[in-house]
Design goal:
- By secondary structure, this protein is of the alpha+beta class.
- The chain has 2 domains: about 120 residues, Trna Endonuclease, Chain: A, domain 1, CATH 3.40.1350; about 90 residues, Beta Polymerase, domain 2 (2-Layer Sandwich), CATH 3.30.460.
- Helices cover about 35% and strands about 25% of the residues.
- The chain is built from 7 helices and 13 strands.
- The strands form 3 sheets. Strands 1, 3, 4, 5, 6 and 7 form a 6-stranded mixed sheet that branches. Strands 8, 9, 10, 11 and 12 form a 5-stranded mixed sheet that branches.
- A hairpin with a 7-residue loop joins strand 6 and strand 7.
- This is SseB protein N-terminal domain-containing protein.
- InterPro entries: SseB_N (IPR009839).
- Pfam families: SseB (PF07179).
Length: about 240
């Protein structure tokens, strides 16, 4: 079982819109093994495309053995984050078949990958919010509490916690991040903005702020506890070049 499998209690194409969005968000952060026509040459790769009824698609799995199992033996592949692969396929006008034959199987056409790339380009709206804060609306809590809690848990060690409040009678909402070092705040805000882009839109939107001030009494609190700060991996200089 992989992280994508864990989310796929209902198959992707039978799931409701919020669950599909959560699976796509997880896919973006997952390292995928994508089939190639041949071994990479330097930083150049050529994706192996399959012609289906609705156009060409690439094939990728979230584990190397799954990809080899599909082909019945070793296959040339590249390991790429889902977000990078979505961007490459967007330029090719191709779709993506993920984990065929497994619980988390999904077939994403070119239009879906275009939407995914657009959602991943969402920019955070950061507001220091010296406004009247209240408790969040019940509908917002129901829609955001679980997926936001899961995403914030991924950041354990980079943040101490977070809280969600309504603004000016809950005409909008504010997510306040606690205990984040200044050098990490831009990346945290971007990641949370992406997460919110995959979740149901809330009236007035959800702004992001960083503060160690105590939460308002009626806020929804996310307490993560103390943990060792992880070492952030070095980023590649750029995505591979398609041949």
């Amino acid at each position: 079982m992989t992280a994508l499998d864990d989310l796929a209690a209902t198959p992707f194409h039978d799931a409701d819109a919020p669950l599909r969005a959560r699976m796509l968000s997880r896919l973006a952060d997952t390292e995928l093994s994508v089939a190639l026509t041949d071994e990479p040459i330097g930083d150049r790769i050529e994706l192996r495309l399959f012609q289906l009824e609705h156009g060409p698609v690439a094939l990728a799995c979230d584990a190397e053995d799954r990809l080899a199992g599909f082909f019945g033996g070793p296959v040339a592949y590249a390991a790429l984050p889902g977000r990078v692969l979505a961007g490459l396929l967007r330029t090719e006008g191709a779709g993506l078949l993920v984990n065929p034959g497994h619980r988390s199987e999904m077939l994403l056409d070119a239009a879906m990958l275009d939407w995914l790339s657009g959602a991943l380009s969402a920019a955070p709206r950061i507001d220091q919010a010296r406004l009247h804060l209240t408790g969040p609306m019940p509908g917002t809590v129901e829609a955001l509490a679980e997926p936001l809690g899961a995403r914030l848990a991924d950041m354990r060690g980079l943040i101490a916690g977070a809280w969600l409040a309504g603004v000016d009678g809950a005409t909008s909402h504010l997510l306040v991040i606690v205990g984040a070092a200044p050098e990490h705040q831009d990346a945290i805000a971007k990641a949370l903005s992406e997460t919110l882009a995959f979740l149901p839109a809330q009236p007035g939107g959800v702004d992001i702020s960083f503060s160690d001030a105590p939460p308002v009494p009626a806020a929804l609190r996310f307490d993560l506890g103390a943990a060792e700060v992880p070492v952030l991996p070095k980023r590649q200089n750029g995505p591979p070049i398609l041949r």
